[in-house]
Each structure stands twice: as structure tokens, then as C-alpha cells.
Design a protein that fits this description.
Blueprint (H helix, E strand, L loop, with lengths): L3 H26 L7 H6 L10 H20 L6 H5 L13 E4 L6 H14 L34 E2 L7 H7 L5 E6 L2 H11 L2 H5 L6 H6 L6 H4 E4 L4 E4 L4 H5 L10 H14 L2 E4 L3 H12 L3 H4 L20 H10 L1 H21 L2 H26 L7 E3 L8 E3 L1 H8 L2 H11 L13 H9 L13
Parallel strand pairs: 1-2, 1-3, 3-6
Antiparallel strand pairs: 4-5, 7-8
Helix pairs in contact: 1-3, 5-19, 12-16, 13-17, 17-18
Amino acid sequence: MMSTKALFILMLAIAIYGTAVYYHTQVAVYPAFKPNNKTLRSGIGPTSGPRTSQDERQLSKEASLQNIVQRTQPDLKDNNTKEAEMSSKTCHPRRQFVFIKTHKTGSCTAVNIFQRYALRHSLSVLIPTGGNLLGWPFPPAEQDYVHTPDEQYDVLLNHVVYNKPWLRSKFPANTAYISIIREPSSQLRSAFNYYSLPKLLKIESQNPVQTFLQDPWKYKHLSEAYFDFCNVTWDGTRNFMSFDLGYPTEGAEDKERAHRYISELEADFRLVLLLEHLDESIVLLRRLMCWEVRDVLYDIVSKNNRSYPYKSYIPTAQELTNLRRWKAVDYLLYDTFNASLWRKITAQGPDFYEELRYFREVKKRVGTFCRTCKQRRRCDPPSLTIEASKWSRQFAVDSKYCSRIQSQELLLGKYIRERASKEDRKEWTIMRVADNVLRIVQGLPTVKYKAQAE
């Protein structure tokens, strides 16, 4: 029969072995489990008081048994996961999202991220029947988009005016709504150039934005353009971004209505990116969507970038005061989501800025590599390895990745259509707003489909 002393030693060994197995299991299966000094003293839980020689012997036994366990137990994590402590360990990637692509806000750069994600994960995209515009200003008619059998989709990427009831009839309840806006005065300059607004307003000065800002109300009868095909008034000089997000032109002077509507938008949207703080917005996007760093990198060369004489014009204090009154809803929209962005960033904790620095470093490395590939028409070396970090698994950048990140919206849209095996029906191509503005300038009626103008 086993002596009492031998039995005690055996029971102690079993207890120590069980503690070591438990510790290893917590660290292997739950990477976030990190014992503190108190836990390490006993291997079980907190204790107090100085460490004794008996404690040292206990720890030595535990360490020996732990080494045995670690040599015999299978490694439950791959090399990347060992080094990376990504947020995806505690949340799941969001695979349903609607990106409301607003006009003249840098959305062509941002949409590349969402298009690549949809392609990489083979998501069901609600795509236009023809062309690259989904619908404007109303939700798409039945013939304007490609239908799935169940009328449910994962992703929307194209220009469309935000319409909450229609979108929620097509997308799951947990869909993340995302958009992008920019500082209203810079958005105005871009819109002036792209939409031929000087022609619409009959301004012939060298700096039409400066002329306009001296007295915006003087041009109201011209800036409120009427689109007769849909019975909608649009004003490219006023609350253009708010219009894209579903706020009507007629509500420009209704402060109470604007506050109420923008509060609803803040509740509806998971994130609204700011062009002036795009890197911060994208890092926050990655965290909120639980995506990977490779998913959210963007090309360092701006897409759809244009030059025009008054692009860098800085309005005077009085002109900005006039603009804030004129574009009051757009400024309320921008101020609201500017404050929202920084609140969400603050909630992320101090390591957000560590990731931001990391993101910018990786973006620069990838951008330089891809730009060199494009210049040489080949990648030499064939790939760039981005090592694993606290925020990212290791990944490789090759010619295919570079091609996708450098691609224009139309090309990636073509890939999405080809993957869905849907023909581009030219007869259903929506007329661009800019082209309809030119028709108004020329005294012609506006049209919904491009084919109607041919």
C-alpha cells in the first residue's frame, strides 16, 4: 500500500500538472489571457506577500511541467497569429455593407477599398444593369439593377442617394452603412469645376468661386437647377453632400429639420469617413469592420484628381461666413461627423495612434513598391512581404495586389460585373449629373438614361 507521504507527493504532482495544462490552454486558445505577476506566483490566482524559497521551488516545478506540456501539446496557432494581436480575435469581419458614394468628396479613392473587399470575398454586390451609376436621385427602378433570386445583397458601392426604407428592403438588418464627406468649401471648389457651375451661374470671372462667395444669394435663381425628368430641384453650390445623403434641396433654410435629419444619419451610419483625415478614418474603419490591414490600404496616388485654376483658392473670412450661411446644412453635416469621428477614435484607446503610424508606414512601403512595379511594368522582386505585427498578419504584396489597388473604379466595377456574369446593358446606363447640368445650360430637357440623349 502507498504510504501517506507518497500519496501526498503524487497528489501534489497531479495538481501542479493540471495547473500547467490549464495555463497553457488559456494562453493557446485565448491569446488575450496574459497572467500578471500575482497569477504567476501560485499558478492559480492572486496571492499577497513576498515570495519565499518554497514559492521558488513551486515555480521551478511548475515551469518544468509546463515545458513538458508545451512540447507534447499541438501548437494551436500559426506563426502569423503568434505575432499578431488583431482585433479580429475578438470580433468577426463585417461582410455586409453599403457605401454611399457621395460626389466630389474623394469617394473614388475610398471606393477602391470596398470594391477590392467585395472581390476578394466574393460578396453579392447590387450592381447597375448598365454603366456604373446605380440611380439618381431616386432609388433604382426595377430595370436599373441586376436582381438576385431572393432580392438580398451583401454590398452596395455605386452613386445612389441614401434612401433608408429602400436600402433596408435589400440589405440585412446588421448591414454597416458607410459614406465619405469633405470640408464644404473644398467640396464646393471641386463641384464648381466638375459640374460646369460657372456656366450654369453665368459667371465669367477667372475665379468663379470667389465671385460666387461674395454674394451666393445673388445666384439662387440659377443655382437651383430643376431636373424635369424626375421633378427634383438640385443645387450643386449649396448642400450637395446632404442631398446625396437624402436631404432635400428645399430644406436648406429649415434648421430644425436639418438637425433632426442629421441626428438620424448619425444613428444610421456606422462610420462616415472624412477626406481631410482619411488615414484616421480608414484605420477606424478597419477596427470597426474587423478587417485586415491588407484590405484597407489605398493607393498613394489620388484617383480622379483634376487640376483647375482656383483649386487652391482660400476664401476670405467674410466669404467663409457667407458660405457657412449658404451651405448651413452641409456644414452641420460635416461638423457632426467630424465630432463623431474623434469621439470614436478616442474610444479606441491610445494604441489607435500606434496603429495609425504603422498603417502610414505600410501604406508608404506598399505604395513605393507598387509604383515601381508600374514604372518597370513588372515587379522585381516579384513580391513585398509585410511582416506580422500587433495589428496585422503577415501578407505579401504582388503584381495582382498592386494592379487592384491602382485600378480605377470603372475597371474594378467591370471585374465585379464579369464575376456576376452579367452583361453591361448600355441602354440602361444612367445619365451623369454633370451631363444633365450641361443640358440645362444648353436649354435642353434633362433625361434619366444616357441613351435618351443620343
